[in-house]
Write a structure and sequence with these properties.
The chain is an alpha+beta fold. The chain has helices at about 5-50, 60-65, 70-75, 80-85, 225-230, 330-335, 350-370, 375-390, 390-405, 405-415, 425-435, 445-465, 500-515, 525-545, 550-575, 580-590, 595-615, and strands at about 95, 100-105, 110-120, 125-130, 135-145, 145-150, 155-160, 165-170, 175-185, 190-195, 210-220, 235, 245, 255-260, 260-270, 270-280, 285-290, 300-310, 315-330, 485-490, 495-500.
Amino acid sequence: MNKNSILGFVLIGVILIAFSWYNSKIINETKAVQQAADSVAAASVAISKTDSATFNTDSLQSGADSIVPAAVQQASPYKDSLLIKASLGAEEFSVLENDKIKVELTNLGAQPSNVLIKEFKAADSSALVLMKSKSSKLSLSIYTNEEIRTDRFAFTKYAQTDTSVTYRLFVDSTSYIQYEYVLSAGSYMLSANVTLSGMERHIPRNVTSLDLSWVMDMPRLEKGYDNEKNYSTIVYKYPNDKSVDDLGLRKDDAEEDIRTKVEWIAYQQQFFSAILVAENSFANANMRYRFYPEGDPDGNLMRCESLMQVPYNEGTEVTIPFSMYFGPNHFKTLKSYDKGFEKIVPLGGWLIGWINRYIIITVFDFLGRFISNYGIIILILTILIKLVISPLTFKSYMSSAKMRVLKPEIDKINAKYPKTEDAMKKQQETMALYSKTGVSMFGGCLPMLLQFPILFAMFRFFPSSFELRQEGFLWAHDLSTYDSILTLPFTIPLFGDHLSLFALLMAVSTYFYSRMNIDQMTSGPQMAGMKVMSLYFMPIFLLFLGNNFSSGLSYYYLLSNLITMVQTWAIRRFFVDEEKIYAKLKERAAAPKKKSKFQERLDSVYKTQQEQLKKRK
C-alpha cells in the first residue's frame, strides 16, 4: 500500500470520528431542550388553571424565570422569559355562543378558531361551519426590540363570562397585550377590543401603525361549484362611502393593494360572509384570493388573505376596537348593522340595483309574510311584473302590427327602386310613408328596451337571493341552485354533467314563443337570419346558460314566457284588428301633413346626391 492510500484512510477515519462526536453532541442538546420544553408546558398548564381572581402579576416575572430553564432561554428567539413561556404554551379553547352562532376561541393567538352558524345547514345537510378549525389565522404584529406576532403565543385566559372572554399576553410583569371578545344575544357580530397596556416602553416612538394579517379558507357550502365560485370574492368599503368595491367575480385569483383607508373587509361566499371591521378604519390594505380546485379534499372553496395596517397612537393604555361578522348574506340582516354590509349582495349597478333593492325585494318580502311556498311567491311576482309592463307590451305589439299592415306598401317601394344607385330614393319614400302614416320604425323596439332593466334585475336577484336558499318547489330541492333530473356520465363544456328540467322547460317555452311570433316578422334576407336565431339558436343558448344557474331564475323565465304567450294571444284575439289599423293608417296618410325637419334634411341629401350623379354622367 502506498503513502497516498494510507493518508486517505487516515483522513476518512478522522472525519468519521469527528462527525460521530458532533452528532452525539447535537442529540444530547436536543434532548435537553425538549425536556425543558416539556417542563415549561406542564408548568404553563398548571398556571393557566389558576383562578383569574387570584392572578398575581407581581410574582409573574419571577415565577416565569424559575419555570423556564436556561437551555430553553438560550435556544428561544425571545429575550423575556414570559414570552418564551407563552411561545411554548399548550392550546386551550373557550366558547361563546348565542341563538345565532357558536364561536370557539383558541388561546393560541387569542383568535376565533371555529364558527358554527346555528340556523342553517350546508348543502349536504351537515352543520354549517363557516370557519373550520385550523383554517383561519388572525395575527397582530408588534415590533419592539423583537418581533411579537400574536399567533405565535399562547395567551392566558384572564377572565370569562357568559358573553365575553378576555385573553392576555404578558411581555413583562406590567406590560401586556389583551384581547376581549364579546358576543351579544341575537347577533352575528363578535366584538373584539385589543388593548396594549404599558407597551409604550417597548414600542419605539416613531411607530404609528401596527400590522394585522387575516388569512382564512372559505369552505364550500352550496351545491354547484361553478355557481358558488361565480358569486364569491373579497369586498371592501372605504370610510364615508355609500358604495363598496370588490376584487372581481368569476376570476380564479385576484389581488389589490389599497393605499387609502378601508373601513371593513368581507370574505364573501355565495350566501355567507366573514367580515372584519376596524372601527377606526385600517390605514391601508393588501388583499388577495385564489380558488381551490373543485375536488379539494378538505372541501375548501377559496383562500382569502389580507394584510392591513392599524393606526397606533402612543399611550399608557391604547385600545384598538374591532368587530367580526359571521353570518348570512341576507339583505335585511346585513342592513340592520348599519355599516353598509348589505352592499355585498350582488344586486347590480345603480339602476338594476335600485330596482332590486326598492321594488323586487320589497314585494318579495311582503309576499313572504303571507305565503311560505317560494314557488308560489315567484309566480305571483311574475304576474305582478307582467301586469306592470303590460302597457309597454301592448304598445310594442301594436307597433309591430302597423309595420305588418304596411308591408305591401313597402314591397311596392322596393319593386319600384330595384337598383343599388336608387337606395337613397327608396329610403326616402319609405321614410315618407312612415311619416304620413305616423308609424315609427323603433316603435316596437323602445317598449321592449324599457323592459330590459327588469329582466336584468331578475337575472341578478334570483342567484343572490338568500331567501331561496334550500327552499324547494316541485322537483327542485333548492331554488337558489340548479335542479337536476338527469346526471350525465360525462361533462359537456359550458353545460355541465347534469340536465336541469326548469332550464329545459324554459328553452322549450322560448322555442314555442318564437314559433308563435314567427309569422309576425317581416320578410327579407336579414329577417330570415333573425328567424333562425330566435327560433333555434336562442332556445339552445338559454338551455346552456340556465342549466347551471339558479332554478328559481329558470322558473321565472319559464313563467314569463308562458304569461307573455297568453298576453299575445289575448291581444291578437280581442284588441288587434289589422283591417281597422290599415284603414286608419290610410286615412292618416291622406291627410295633409307638414314635413318634419328630418324628412327635409333627407330630401336635401337626396337632391344633392342626384345632382352629383348627373355631373358624373
